[in-house]
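A reminder from the course coordinator: this example appears on the midterm review sheet, so study it carefully.

Given structure:
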């Protein structure tokens, strides 16, 4: 039986340890036992938190966890390194979607160089503003710890603190770990207090957002305004949290529980289910007893395996994809059937399918329908946050499944979002206009529009948009335009005219989950699951939504995203209509030919027998 051992980290020294010297928790010794984390809590300055001290300070993730684990190595991981231009962006992934309901803005953002995604700064979002806007589901670190360039934001960050990597958000198995509380603290700009408030060992009150830029957390008593005193951020550690050595026990695990992943990675098909979890089937891997981190593993560097074909280097990354687990074939080592994965035979399926299609094309996401379905997920719709808008039609509008080519050229199901924003066109290129400029310029022109009570698209009359573009044109250098529904709209001869443009193209990212079992995969019934003139795989419609009458309720052809010729695809699909009949005719013809051959064979046999008899 494996015995767990205790990890007691010393208080962090004021001077950082040399980068080349591994810390206590940086290297494993090979034991599969779970270390017990009974540790001192350290403040931003590296001082130990002692019960009863005044003012009581929140413990720092960077200092507390960094005493035993090299924080700089962890911060280079995939969840934290999006702002590093030296990091390979990898295949396109889920973006952060910036929504401003009043101006009908909906845009995919990413610091990574993903085609079709915009940079936050293009919409006037500094790293501070980005952290404040999306910090509810940010794991911390990276851009959330960046130093602002703006003097005003520098002052606000001194008050609020930085959003450090929230190690406990993933690795703390304690039942009181509450990421909804983490989000509530981020909304109050209590960045330095958020992780402690979510950990279950302390309660945090007050709001840094209400504090003046001169507020100092080390001197909270300087606030004397009776209206502000209740808003002073304070932390109170729960009774019994500290032991006799002023250490605190955290139920830390290497293997992150699925529930910790769900806070940021939940997804629900609201077209089919609304928000009803009881109607949703889990991924077949989870149903079989696996966990998220069985496939999505990482070491100290937190370069988590994404599970893409051809991802990274090394044996483990190579065998953690669909093909790696189920088909094997890595460096001649028999890896098929890893973790109990069934080895598919794919009887009767032509090999061209494996050259043209990703595994997910048949096995992942919802079954394709006549029209794509609306999907909501944690990061885009703040699922799991208290007071979230639960309406199925709330912005942003994300559609799935959309059959399109992924980075390796194979067809796979994707999620899709149509960008909508106000911009300026110069020399044929469209650049976004900062959201604050847009609000100032076009706000009055849009006030008379019909705004949805559930947070869906407002309904703009053409006259409203024409007036808004005219006012925006006075503020920008170039032609004012509005992008939505895959088109760029501008004013020509007093009318609103929409044209195709690359800046208006939809942003797509591949679907990995939920994975359906083989018995529910495409093609299980017959080839016409995909090769049909009616089925959604090639001939479904992709829903388009937007606030302008010209795009509301319209659709795009799935074949366009798949990059196939619809005419040739339809002709090929029609051949499957006659294939059963052709098989019957071919079988009958073969039978007739066999009878004819048998007749001639018998006649030939008679001639041979007669010749033999005559000779005798």
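Designed residues:
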């Amino acid at each position: 039986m494996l015995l767990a051992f205790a990890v007691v980290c010393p208080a962090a020294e004021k001077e950082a340890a040399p980068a080349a010297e591994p810390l206590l928790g940086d290297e494993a010794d090979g034991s599969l036992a779970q270390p017990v984390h009974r540790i001192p809590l350290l403040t931003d300055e590296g001082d130990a938190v002692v019960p009863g001290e005044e003012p009581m300070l929140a413990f720092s993730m960077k200092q507390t966890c960094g005493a035993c684990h090299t924080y700089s190595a962890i911060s280079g991981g995939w969840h934290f390194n999006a702002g590093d231009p030296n990091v390979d962006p990898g295949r396109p992934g889920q973006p952060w979607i910036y929504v401003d309901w009043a101006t009908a803005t909906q845009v995919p953002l990413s610091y990574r160089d993903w085609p079709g995604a915009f940079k936050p700064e293009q919409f006037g979002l500094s790293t501070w503003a980005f952290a404040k806007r999306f910090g509810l589901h940010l794991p911390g670190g990276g851009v959330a710890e960046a130093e602002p360039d703006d003097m005003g934001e520098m002052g606000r960050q001194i008050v609020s603190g930085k959003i450090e990597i929230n190690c406990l958000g993933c690795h703390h198995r304690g039942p009181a770990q509450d990421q909804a509380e983490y989000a509530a603290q981020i909304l109050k700009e209590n960045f330095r207090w958020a992780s402690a408030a979510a950990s279950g060992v302390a309660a945090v009150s007050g709001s840094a957002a209400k504090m003046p830029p001169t507020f100092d957390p080390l001197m909270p008593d300087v606030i004397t305004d009776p209206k502000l005193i209740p808003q002073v951020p304070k932390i109170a550690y729960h009774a019994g949290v500290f032991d006799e050595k002023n250490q605190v026990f955290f139920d830390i695990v290497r293997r992150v529980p699925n529930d910790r992943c769900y806070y940021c990675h939940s997804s629900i098909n609201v077209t089919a289910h609304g928000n009803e979890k009881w109607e949703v089937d889990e991924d077949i891997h989870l149903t079989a007893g696996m966990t998220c981190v069985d496939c999505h593993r990482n070491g100290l560097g937190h370069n988590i395996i994404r599970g893409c074909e051809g991802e990274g280097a090394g044996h483990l990354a190579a065998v953690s994809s669909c093909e790696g687990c189920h088909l094997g074939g890595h460096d001649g080592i028999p890896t098929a059937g890893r973790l109990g994965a069934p080895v598919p035979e794919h009887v009767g399926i032509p090999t061209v399918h494996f050259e043209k299609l990703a595994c997910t094309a048949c096995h992942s996401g919802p079954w394709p329908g006549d029209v794509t379905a609306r999907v909501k997920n944690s990061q885009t719709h703040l699922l799991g946050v208290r007071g979230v808008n639960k309406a199925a039609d709330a912005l942003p509008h994300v559609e799935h499944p959309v059959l399109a080519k992924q980075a390796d050229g194979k067809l796979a199901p994707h999620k899709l979002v149509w960008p909508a924003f106000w911009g300026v066109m110069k020399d044929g290129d469209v650049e976004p206009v900062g959201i604050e400029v847009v609000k100032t310029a076009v706000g009055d022109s849009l006030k008379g529009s019909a705004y949805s009570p559930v947070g869906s698209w407002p309904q703009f009359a053409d006259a409203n948009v024409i007036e808004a573009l005219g006012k925006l044109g006075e503020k920008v250098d170039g032609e004012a335009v509005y992008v939505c529904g895959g088109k760029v709209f501008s004013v020509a001869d007093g009318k609103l005219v929409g044209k195709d443009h690359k800046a208006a193209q939809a942003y797509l990212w591949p679907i990995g989950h939920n994975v359906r079992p083989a018995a529910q995969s495409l093609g299980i019934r017959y080839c016409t699951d995909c090769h049909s003139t009616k089925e959604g795989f090639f001939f479904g419609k992709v829903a388009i939504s937007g606030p302008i009458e010209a795009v509301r309720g319209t659709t795009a052809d799935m074949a366009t995203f798949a990059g196939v010729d619809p005419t040739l695809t339809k002709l090929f699909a029609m051949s499957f209509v006659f294939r059963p009949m052709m098989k019957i005719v071919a079988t009958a013809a073969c039978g007739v030919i066999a009878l004819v051959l048998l007749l001639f064979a018998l006649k030939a046999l008679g001639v041979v027998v007669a010749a033999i008899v005559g000779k005798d």
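The two ends are 90 Å apart (CA to CA). Residues 1-18 have pLDDT under 50 and may be disordered.
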